[in-house]
Every structure is written in C-alpha cells, then in structure tokens.
C-alpha cells in the first residue's frame, strides 16, 4: 500500500510574511533609471518567489514613498511599514538596495534597533545583506559600527565647539535665562528689571517658611516665565511660574556667573546676578528642606521603588515600600496601600501594588504618550526651545523605540526622573509627568540626532 508523501517544509512551518519597501526621490524619477518604483517592487517580488519553498509569502501591497528624499525618516510609506511591524504583521523587510531604506548610516542605525526588537529580518535583494545569514549580519554590523564611530566623533566635535563657545562667555540657542539678554556678539548681558526679579525670588525663598507661601506671593504678583521670540518669530513664555520653574531658577549656577561644559561648572564666565552669600544661603535651605522631606529607604536600592514618594491614594495617603525576605531564591516587592485605601481594615491587602505591575502600567502610559504627545507639545516647545516640533516628536519616538533595549535599572531610573505623581483610584490611575525632566531628556536625544546628521546646535544649559 502506498504511504502518503511527507509534507513539504513550506507546508509545515508558519509562512514568513515579507514586506516590500520601495522609494524613489524626485531626482531619481527624473533620471528614469532602474531605481523606479516598478523595477524595485518587481525585483523584490521575484526574490520572494525564489524563496517560496522556504515559506516566504508577500504580506500585502508594497510600502511606497514616491518623490520623497531619504534625508528624513518621516515618510508616509516608511511610517506605515513601521506601524505594521509594531502590530506583528511582518517577518521580513525587503528593499531593492539599502539606500532605498536610508542613505544615512545614522538613520539606518536608528532603524535597525526597531527591527531587532520586533524580530524583523532585513534583506537587500541586490546586495549581500540578509540578516538571515551570518555574512549578511556581519555586513550590517560593520555598517552600523562605522555609523556609531562617526556619531561619536561628531559628538566630540560638537562638545568641543560648545565648550569653546561657552568658555568665551557666548550664548547659543533661541531662549535666554530669566535675567539675561544676548548682545550683538552673542554674549549674555544682564537685563536689569529681570535680574532684580531673580534676586527677589532668591530673597523671598529665604524669607518664607514654606514653598506654599512662596508660590502664593508669586501668584499674587502675577510673576510669569520669561517672554521671548524664537528666531522664526514664534512667541514663547509668559506663563504663570510654577514650583518646578522656581526650583530650576534657584539651582541655576549661571546666576553666580558659572557655565557648564566638559562635564563640570566653570566660574567667571557669565556676568553674575546673585551674590555668593545669597546663593549659599539659598542652597543651604534647599539642602535642609530636601533632607527633611527625604523618605528613609535603608538597605534598598532606590531604583527598586522608583515611584516611592510619588504614589498616592486618591483620598489621601502615600503608598509605602515593602520587600519580602528571600522566598525560594526570589524576593517580592510591593507598594503598600495607605489606610485610607484599605478603609481602615488592616488586613486588607487587595490594593497593595506589585512593583512589576504598576511599573508596567506607568511605562505603558508613557510610551503611548511618546507616540501621541499632543498634550505635552506646547510645554515641551517652551522648555526645549531650541528644537522644533519635528525634533521633539522624533526624539520621543526614538525613546519609545529604545525602551525595550533598556536594562531594568535604566527603565526604573527613567520612571524616577519622568514621573512626578501617580494618583490611584479604585478603577484607574492618574499619571502626572515631570515636563522639565522630559524636556531635558529630549534635549539630549535631539542633540545626539543632530550631531549624527552634521548639525551643531547645542542644547541649553
């Protein structure tokens, strides 16, 4: 009796879903060379057919950017491709040549982690680049290694230029700190009315017993952030001054004439506004207040509980931290609900929050906002004023893309820096971001991207 033939490899394995990406710029289309969209798509389709025996199938129509330069990653076709990658619709991305995806090694180095996180293979049908194979991975790693080397060299050059500029007392960037203006030689000079306001803030901080009194005085006098106009004519600032802004002013060493470069502060660079005695008195009071409000956490790594002191029940009371003894080689960590949450029943542990769960929820909220940052944009444009909206959006997308590559401690440190308060309700949580901290992080990311593209705009002090 004849036996059934064994099924083919393609029939027994899950199909490998292949997406084709094709791009042609205006210059390419004018030359009418074989870089046309049709030629690229056909070559990729034939490559998929040649590997049909390995289970390769086309995932759908090609993702196309026609008349679009490779100088930007903000392309409709590429963005649609990345969106489908995040939704796990694709296993392999095929391009006719690697420069169809990006002409920039720096942009390519930004894209590859996105592919790696999702387990996506990249194949160039006319070049020996196929991340299914050791040779292909080696070729790609060499390209990205050179890109990283160039990025670091560009960063060093930018850092050296920034240090030389600041050593001369010159200022770069759109906005200037409260109390200063820029003269025709790009040097900071004191603006008397604003400088007196800065000194008033320092003196009143010493005079008041609490920050609540300080903020009431600020509100009573209608004190706002610095008003200024960007180089492209947009008006910024003029908002009511909040606590975070006040603390940033009180801690800004520029007001005693110091400039920050090469990783440390250097004295005698800028014209001072606040005398040293007043500065030291304020710093002593800030230090005492910080110690008085500190949360004892002996014997624990603070990154085990990055939301400690920031997690509250909606009806009042802060969550505290608990770490169990070693149980079978594992320790359990919780944020313990306050009595107000447990309705006075000491034994009720149902509202205690495992750290992994609440951290995952808060991180997920952050990452969703990174992709759709509209509620933050006006504030970020003011705080990260040397960057435009496109810079900010790209920096946030880069932060989201890199999140899964962070170590556990890096993720915890990012939560600690970016979250100012989490309010827990019976059916939801309210999450408040520390916008100045996010702006500072964006400055760093955007600065790295600009260095990679050959730009030299430094971030603000």
List descriptors.
45% helix, disordered N terminus, Rossmann fold, Hect, E3 ligase catalytic domain fold, six-stranded mixed β-sheet, alpha/beta, 18 strands, 461 residues
How are the SSEs ordered, and which strands pair?
Blueprint: H1 9-12, E1 16-24, H2 26-31, H3 37-50, E2 56-58, E3 63-66, H4 76-86, E4 92-95, H5 98-101, H6 105-118, E5 121-124, E6 129-130, H7 134-167, E7 180-182, E8 188-190, H8 192-207, H9 211-220, E9 228-229, E10 235-236, H10 243-250, E11 259-261, E12 264-266, H11 276-293, E13 311-313, E14 320-323, E15 333-336, E16 353-354, H12 355-371, H13 374-383, H14 389-402, H15 408-418, E17 419-424, E18 429-433, H16 435-452
Parallel strand pairs: 1-2, 1-3, 1-4, 4-5, 13-17
Antiparallel strand pairs: 5-6, 7-8, 9-10, 11-12, 14-15, 15-16, 17-18
Helix pairs in contact: 6-7, 8-11, 12-14, 13-16, 14-16
């Amino acid at each position: 009796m004849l036996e059934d033939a064994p099924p083919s490899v393609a029939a027994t394995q899950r199909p490998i879903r292949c997406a084709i990406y094709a791009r042609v710029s205006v210059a390419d289309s004018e030359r009418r060379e074989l870089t046309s969209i049709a030629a690229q798509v056909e070559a990729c389709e034939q490559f998929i057919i040649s590997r049909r025996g390995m289970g390769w199938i086309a995932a759908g129509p090609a993702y196309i950017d026609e008349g679009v330069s490779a100088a930007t990653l903000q392309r409709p076709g590429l963005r649609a491709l990345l969106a489908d990658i995040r939704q796990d619709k694709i296993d392999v991305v095929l391009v006719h040549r690697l420069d169809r995806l990006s002409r920039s090694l720096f942009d390519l180095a930004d894209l590859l982690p996105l592919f790696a996180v999702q387990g996506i293979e990249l194949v160039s049908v006319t070049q020996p680049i196929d991340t299914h194979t050791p040779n292909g991975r080696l070729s790609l790693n060499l390209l990205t290694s050179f890109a990283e080397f160039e990025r670091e060299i560009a960063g060093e050059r930018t850092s050296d230029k920034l240090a030389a500029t600041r050593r001369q007392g010159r200022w770069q960037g759109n906005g200037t700190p409260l109390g200063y203006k820029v003269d025709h030689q790009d040097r900071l000079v004191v603006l008397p009315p604003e400088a007196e306001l800065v000194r008033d803030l320092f003196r009143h901080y010493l005079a008041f017993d609490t920050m609540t009194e300080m903020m009431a005085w600020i509100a009573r006098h209608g004190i706002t952030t610095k008003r200024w106009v960007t180089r492209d004519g947009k008006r910024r600032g003029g908002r009511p001054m909040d606590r975070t802004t006040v603390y940033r002013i009180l801690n800004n060493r520029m007001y005693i004439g110091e400039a920050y470069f090469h990783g440390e502060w250097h004295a005698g660079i800028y014209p001072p506004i606040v005398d040293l005695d007043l500065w030291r008195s304020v710093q002593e009071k800030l230090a005492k207040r910080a110690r008085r409000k500190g949360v004892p956490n002996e014997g624990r790594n603070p990154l085990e509980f990055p939301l400690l002191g920031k997690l509250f029940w909606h009806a009042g009371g802060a969550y505290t931290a608990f770490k169990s003894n070693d149980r079978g080689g594992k320790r359990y960590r919780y944020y313990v609900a306050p009595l107000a949450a447990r309705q006075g029943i000491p034994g009720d542990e149902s509202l205690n929050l495992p750290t992994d769960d609440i951290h995952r929820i808060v991180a997920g909220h952050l990452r969703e906002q990174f992709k759709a940052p509209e509620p933050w944009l006006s504030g970020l444009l003011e705080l990260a004023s040397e960057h435009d909206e496109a810079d900010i959006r790209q920096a946030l997308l880069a932060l989201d893309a890199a999140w899964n590559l962070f170590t556990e401690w890096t993720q915890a440190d990012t939560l600690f820096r970016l979250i100012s308060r989490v309010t827990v309700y019976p059916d939801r949580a309210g999450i408040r971001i520390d916008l100045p901290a996010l702006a500072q992080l964006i400055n760093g990311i955007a600065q790295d991207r600009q260095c990679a593209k050959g730009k030299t705009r430094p971030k603000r002090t």
